[in-house]
Amino acid sequence: MKLAKELEAKILTANSDSKLVTGQVNGEYQFRDPQLIKYLEKAIRMATTFEKFTLHHMPQE
């Protein structure tokens, strides 16, 4: 997200192999781990700076 912002992208589609992270960022799962909350909050804040942000779960092959 940081690089996309530096490149002045307005729309970002990202993929993650972590279903937990994807679900938390997309608001499908609750935050539970206090260590991860600050990182997830930062990711969500950064996501809101784009006109459109989409995060998809892509399982590892």
Automatic annotation (TrEMBL):
GO-annotated molecular function: nucleic acid binding; RNA-DNA hybrid ribonuclease activity
One Pfam match: RVT_3
Domain called RNase H type-1: residue spans: 1-61
Domain of life: Eukaryota
Stated name of the protein: RNase H type-1 domain-containing protein
Native source organism of the sequence: Mucuna pruriens
